[in-house]
Design brief:
Length: 173
């Protein structure tokens, strides 16, 4: 898949990325996510039991935080993979059926990564490109609530997207 992206063969790349999103990523079930997460946590627990991780040096709070990060990592990676493909489709494809598929992917991404501004931004932009301006603006406004205000450039980008939507301007290339 990345081979086609690197070589600039856009049609072949798009074909492969759409197949990957629809037949691989979208078919990962919640029980599979739980199983993958359980395996990661078990490997972590085994590392503690075997002494490869020195719990005295690391500390209980850091270990608990790391366990939580492991629990979220499988969901987050899957969610961001779906989001990134949906974003790429949003920016490069005009076909409404493919854009509708991308909306499904980013909707799943939002289930996996709630309150994350990246998939929410993709969701808003896809809605807008598909002609659902009202819902798109509401989602774009929601994106601002979850945007990191310390990331000035990112926050201003989200404000600009909202402005463009309200002014009926394109938000894609």
């Amino acid at each position: 898949m990345n081979y086609y992206k690197k070589t600039g063969e856009k049609k072949l790349y798009l074909k492969h990325v759409l197949t990957y999103a629809n037949t691989d990523l979208m078919k990962v079930t919640d029980s599979e996510i739980a199983e993958q997460t359980s395996k990661k946590i078990s490997a972590f627990e085994d590392a503690i039991k075997s002494g490869r991780i020195d719990t005295a040096k690391v500390g209980a709070k850091k270990l608990m935080k790391y366990r939580q990060e492991l629990s979220n990592s499988v969901k987050y990676k899957l969610g961001m993979d779906l989001n990134n493909i949906a974003w790429e489709v949003f920016e490069t494809v005009a076909d409404k059926a493919i854009l509708a598929d991308a909306l499904k992917w980013v909707t799943r991404s939002l289930e996996l990564c709630p309150n994350d501004s990246k998939p929410l931004d993709t969701y808003a932009n896809l809605l807008y490109r598909l002609g659902n301006k009202e819902k798109a603006i509401a989602a774009a406004e929601e994106t601002l609530k979850y945007s990191d205000k310390a990331n000035v450039e990112g926050y201003k980008y989200n404000e600009e997207i909202l402005r463009k939507m309200k002014a009926n301007e394109k938000t894609w290339k």
